[in-house]
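User: Predict the complex.
Assistant: Input components as received:
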Amino acid sequence: MQKGVEDKGKYNFRNNITIDWCPGCGDFGIVSAVTQALSNMKMDPDDVVAVSGIGCSGKTPHYLNIAGVHTLHGRAIPYAVGVKLSNPNLNVLVMGGDGDLLSIGAGHFVGEGRRNSGVKVILYNNSVYGLTKGQAAPTLPLGEKVKSLARPNIMGKINPITLAMASGYSFVARAFSSEIKQLSYIIERAIKHEGSAVIEVLQPCPTYNDVNTLDWYRQRVYKLEDDKSWDPVVNKKEEDEEKFDTGYRKSLEWGDHIPIGIFYENNTIPSYTNRLAGIVPEYLKYPPALQEVADKDGYTIVDPIKTFSEKDVE
Amino acid sequence: MQKGVEDKGKYNFRNNITIDWCPGCGDFGIVSAVTQALSNMKMDPDDVVAVSGIGCSGKTPHYLNIAGVHTLHGRAIPYAVGVKLSNPNLNVLVMGGDGDLLSIGAGHFVGEGRRNSGVKVILYNNSVYGLTKGQAAPTLPLGEKVKSLARPNIMGKINPITLAMASGYSFVARAFSSEIKQLSYIIERAIKHEGSAVIEVLQPCPTYNDVNTLDWYRQRVYKLEDDKSWDPVVNKKEEDEEKFDTGYRKSLEWGDHIPIGIFYENNTIPSYTNRLAGIVPEYLKYPPALQEVADKDGYTIVDPIKTFSEKDVE
Amino acid sequence: MQETDINLLVGGPQGGGIDSAANMISMAFSLAGYNIYGIREFHSNIKGRHSYIHFRIMHERPKSLKYPVDIMVALDPDTLFEHMFDVAKGSKVVYDSAFNTFNLKNARMITSDTMGRIQDELAEKNLSFDVKGVLDYFKSTGIDVIAIPFDKLINENVHDGPANRYYNTLGAGTTLALLGLDEEHADDGIKFAFKKKPKVVESNIKVIRAAYDYVEKSPLKVATLPTYPAIPRMLLTGNDATALGKLMGGLRFQTYYPITPASDESTLLESHEDMKFLQNADKIVNKAGLVVVQCEDELSAINMANGAALTGTRSATATSGPGFSLMAEGIGYAGMTEIPVVITFYQRGGPSTGLPTRNGQADLLFALNTGHGEFPKMVISSGDMEECIYDGMKSLNYAQRYQMPVIHLIDKTLANTMDLVPEIDVKKVKIVKYNENTNHENFKRYSLDTENGISPYGVFGKDIFWMTGDEHDELGHVTEDSAMRDKMMEKRMQKLVTADREIPLEDKAVLYGDENADITYVTWGSQKSLLIDTISELKKQGISANLLYLRMFEPFPAEYVAKVLKNSHLIIDVESNMTGQAAKVIRMFTGINIENFILKYNGRHMTLDEVLKSTKNIMEKKTALEVLQEGS
Amino acid sequence: MQETDINLLVGGPQGGGIDSAANMISMAFSLAGYNIYGIREFHSNIKGRHSYIHFRIMHERPKSLKYPVDIMVALDPDTLFEHMFDVAKGSKVVYDSAFNTFNLKNARMITSDTMGRIQDELAEKNLSFDVKGVLDYFKSTGIDVIAIPFDKLINENVHDGPANRYYNTLGAGTTLALLGLDEEHADDGIKFAFKKKPKVVESNIKVIRAAYDYVEKSPLKVATLPTYPAIPRMLLTGNDATALGKLMGGLRFQTYYPITPASDESTLLESHEDMKFLQNADKIVNKAGLVVVQCEDELSAINMANGAALTGTRSATATSGPGFSLMAEGIGYAGMTEIPVVITFYQRGGPSTGLPTRNGQADLLFALNTGHGEFPKMVISSGDMEECIYDGMKSLNYAQRYQMPVIHLIDKTLANTMDLVPEIDVKKVKIVKYNENTNHENFKRYSLDTENGISPYGVFGKDIFWMTGDEHDELGHVTEDSAMRDKMMEKRMQKLVTADREIPLEDKAVLYGDENADITYVTWGSQKSLLIDTISELKKQGISANLLYLRMFEPFPAEYVAKVLKNSHLIIDVESNMTGQAAKVIRMFTGINIENFILKYNGRHMTLDEVLKSTKNIMEKKTALEVLQEGS
Ligand SMILES: Cc1ncc(C[n+]2csc(CCOP(=O)(O)OP(=O)(O)O)c2C)c(N)n1
Ligand SMILES: Cc1ncc(C[n+]2csc(CCOP(=O)(O)OP(=O)(O)O)c2C)c(N)n1
Ligand code: SF4
Ligand code: SF4
Ligand SMILES: [Mg+2]
Ligand SMILES: [Mg+2]
């Protein structure tokens, strides 16, 4: 805990590594929002970790001045969960493309909904596979033809919000990479939320996606919170059925009007770390990462016979 | 097309291989329903193929008197799609456990929703991993302790119906292994449906699941079609929003009353095979499996220069 | 007096209580001061198909199994048919007299191929296709056939629940009585087996009584066996021993996806997340616990274990062939980014789903060459309980020290071997920690300023650094600079040279037996103790043999292996696979071509008798390749 | 007169038009009757990072590339810095005069490591850290530095769109003019490159005019090159050639998940799902089409391809290292259940994500040993365009004939090599069909009634049979019978023996050059043509060398390889990896230890000059291991 702690609010969460995204890429906005959120929260840089998959999106951790791991295509979530469960004190941000998280990584995306271990998934939705030159991502609608495709898209589209809700995530939101303030606010809220979060970020890819452009989104997005009555937060179990349904129906809206904001936040579902704390004594205080495994002479501290006493024949 | 065609209605779809499921296993009911459906439809045995994953459920194809492939854990869907897209004339049934399809195979389960290639997925839901001795399956609710678990389940549960709907399947139903007639009817309906189907089958596992027993289900299940006004079929695009929502909400019902029947059938989404037919000329009539690839002397029939004319430098 | 040496087989339907029968017998003998050694064989099936335990009881600790068995207990008729060839003159066969009327065609759980072979044999001997036929077969061979009226004996003596609940106890009791074990010890076995259930103990002891009574009154009565003072031991399988070793070695995070025969290790750990501590542990540490995560698949399992290692936690996963196949990419990532992670790899019969519950040693070359591209990893292998324990500890140490994935190979035979382990030395292996980072200011996770290739390790929560599976610079950022690429490749691979230098030879390869011998066996894994027994047996017969036993395949002790083999005469490679994979590895690293093989790939454990017989055939130059076929 | 032999390098930012510039140049020369041979190098980045094409132009078909290049065209300042060492006395460097004021510190896309090395070099020579500095560096070495006023020339001549749209054409035009190619052919090149866009052609031809004009009026003017009659050829990359071969070979179902450098093959096929037919095809067949499926991941890709094969369809997938790592389990399934499937494996720089857009040959051992357990599979490798085509066809034939997965290795260098292929022989390879089933009544898919191990193939829709990755009986049902298990293992593995017997040696290994030579190179993959050139070059210098070129690794032509190598003197293994994997395979199968290596693992293509130089070092016994380092 040695860096920038003197004046955390001023810590520079953006490092000096050259960003090699295309000019106009929506990913720039996401980096800004993340660094803003961390600054706003006066986060200790040692307490937050960035985990990404492979894709243009996957490069993000290298641009942040916090520890980061740029993992394998589709596997960011398992890495993030490994980090989180071995040290629940860390705030773990997952950065992944729509291909990364919803195609090759879809199994983990669903699995993490069940676990709800407390990682925050930022899903870069550009509707294409950026880094491999513009193939259809699972978020591209059936029949749509972006310029990099030889023929209109032959696959249907996944709505990340409905999939996240069906999988069990307790915090589900959508943002737009050019609405940096809202995105940064949502990230803060997600970090403060105990369970796992999915934040879908609509993100123009000017190089390959000539349909869902910056302007296309600008003309369509509107903020959920602009409706003062919008309240997606479940604090009591009884509220869940209705709020889940409202959020779910809202998330199906697409086309001329695209809602952005928080769709659903359920504070009544315990996170995996808290579930574990019910089984492993003092897990939250002495998680795996903070334990000593050897005595001062370097020998094991585990008593094999007492631990596995049922195997003992005497 | 040589077997049983003389009198298809009398073809025996159950072969003489010894079934090695435990006494009382719900899987027996599923086999009965499948063979009944095929008999009822007077299906030509050469026209239907069974594809399974690994698990107790995965053994099913060996017990059926049709061609069958018992694939890898979690991979039944890709195999089935390979069969279907290379020969769209075949009816392809997928048999998989809840672990197989919703845990290790969840990525394919979601992916197939987007493709909607026309395979029919029968999901054996016993809430446990039968063949590996009773670990929690993704359908087991949080905190539930079946007898094979050392501690209450630490993971949340996936509702196969909501996940199937969020993934894009155009036919989604639930059945119960002891309601063989209804299940057989649903299988017939699914086979007749153009797109891909998911049929979740609630199935007791007397060996490992002592919570969701035969009786437990008997006391809770009720049939959707008993409500005469229940109509889950979308024949016009306009009906979709409402029927999707009704089906979705219904599927969330669980506990004392568990609905079984068809939740959603959308006939307005073209299947992948029909989408392909729009691109590859005469695909449905001359699919890959029915093409000759060599001339009578055994040489290629493809003209490489005309086919790749853009590479030709003259 | 000849030393007690009993080979025993208990068979019955999967899920039908043969485990408890075997357990009672083991416990009774253990408490009578004997050692036992057993291997379980079963189908990939939950209930009904044939399953058995083959074991051996001696005062000395046995190291191998033998056919024919001295006594076979059949808890169902299938056992009589399935093991027709596993008994011989002098053997005793115990079964329920109710089976007498059983017809072979009703044995629906016997697969058609096996059925065919049984029928062929009966037909050849002109015997009927039923229990009577097989019993005649036994009798004609000089086997003692002992029918016990199961229902009658039980119904006359206990009235708590249906008779079939006690079949296994009666089977066990009869066996113990027939072997001449003191009834008192039989009772002790029951008490131990049903520890926490006094009512159950009571009824079962009545059944034991009935069994002893029946035998005593019959002409079957035998002399009482000697008993010995029982020393404290742990009854462990290879799965148990490895779990125990890993936990002692500092494991605090284990991931898994269920799979036979690996998941027993993880489920055991899962039920011991709150471990117990030795005196040397201070108070804070006493609050520690282990986290075991059942993942959504093996892709998740390996990558989650990798992730946990990033916080400084000692982490591991355990799997078998199909799961390991899915881990190749994650292992490559650990190699590239220098993550200390352990993959305990329980080999079973492959390829593909193969023989999921049977033995195999056919994953060596895959383990050695797994993952695309070139990256450092270690591959070690264990051959007995003690090795499972201490290699379990060492695997974590190696991972920490060399910052690379460590693949620990164990085969299904060893995983399912039951053995009484007398003593666990908690000070045998010291815990090694990773090379700690001291420069927190400008931390170079992949510092090139190292001769042995080992850079300071980085820990999330303590240091800021980056990691990527792309080629990277010292800070961990992506680079495509051609010179940096070469340096990083060389730094990573250098660690294998370092490991090879630092690790003592005895952890890599060991020569058992005399240095100069007529025969040199080469093996790895569970054949270790079997071949040590083989050597003793041959010695008794005046034949000198030794064993080059391999424990580490990467880094491979090429020089030592070459030295030993160049001095050898008749070299025989013994493996449970079809292509002699260890011999291939030896040739790849030394150029030496081994020409004689004893191989087994039918999925069953090797036994002493078949290895001896094959050795003779090879010695007599009848053949250079012996394929072993014993086992049902 | 000396034969034209031009080595050329065009560099610029990724996505900044260097592909079109290279294309125009290639087309112009092609249409002037020349042959071209080029290799693309680029970062794993979409826009901005440094990228270049290195090519060679000759009338004869070139087979290798050389440094230093004769002319380098810099479309951005980075190119000048990145390739400081790739030009030498006599080279020409063409660049935009606007770069003159550019400071190195603004070259933000140059990675810090590369930057460091450039700065070190400039500092050592006491030069400034800017374009001026590097130009001084060039001049001091005797390099011709040619500044072209890009904006001025364009703005004076075209008014359709911004000037930078024409930078690449101007770069290409200047190059062509400087090389002395007829302007008419330059115009033809433009017309060809922009085929369907007459307005674009018009503007670009104006730019060409401006370039020629400028050069003509300058002191740079050179003599006109001869031109030749242009014969029809196809300009193919390895990706294209393989796609074409597979389609000719009967491929009708291809699956893929996007990955560099494999997916270009699949996307090309995807845009040709409606292929064109030869005269010999009858009418029904003319309606046929290919299905290409973009899958959700590589697990799906391999298993879906396996699934498609079950209907009798010829199916394949294509991938690179990370994807292949995920396919291990599916390949094992194909091996176990005897599915004919082709996996075209494009190797790139590993391990892990590695150098995604760079070359590598480090996946050989993984391909050979992939998947748990023992199952038959074939591993073949191609080394040039013709092999890509015909091996593409053969890979499908092998799969059909032997009912097993066939892994076809191609490296990134070959995949991204551009070559003009003069003729495609549609009758060179006959199409082989699987062993058809004739007994539909009681179909034994895995009939043991076969000597060569090949049972009749089953087709869904025509036959009723079963398949399982578990061990199975002849019908395809699960069995755990120990005897059936052995028979099935033996039947499956027998197919490899059959393949080895049936396939001619020339498809496995070829010796190029004289049988007796002082030096014997051993290689595989894209070094093939480079080493054939090397041999000619050495011959000119009076040194005799030959090449043992490997095409098939499983079944491995051990006997032949041993025979060749036993007669060799100085053996040098040449591979694009760090551990000499082919040499390891050779030792594993023959015991022969190769002791000299020329290896390259920085991800860049090998060039003639560096191989020659290293060979000399080895001949002079300066070293036994040469690590090549050329390339930016
Ligand atoms: C196992 C594996 N398969 C394929 C790839 C190639 N690959 C790299 S990035 C990428 C897709 C990127 O798309 P997305 O996840 O949407 O990220 P984006 O670039 O759009 O941010 C793919 C398929 C890989 N690296 N690993
Ligand atoms: C890759 C892989 N991992 C693990 C296994 C082990 N395995 C066999 S069946 C099974 C789970 C079975 O559960 P489910 O899919 O619910 O089927 P059920 O037995 O309940 O019908 C597992 C994990 C395997 N065969 N392959
Ligand atoms: S390709 Fe698209 S997503 Fe990738 S950096 Fe460029 S604009 Fe961004
Ligand atoms: S374990 Fe359960 S699911 Fe499997 S066969 Fe037995 S009862 Fe059926
Ligand atoms: Mg994307
Ligand atoms: Mg299940």
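The interface with chain A takes residues 102-107, 110-111, 113-116, 138, 142, 151, 154-159, 162-163, 165-168, 241, 244-245, 248-249, 252, 269, 272, 275-276, 279 of chain B (CB under 8 Å).
Let me know if you want any component modeled separately.
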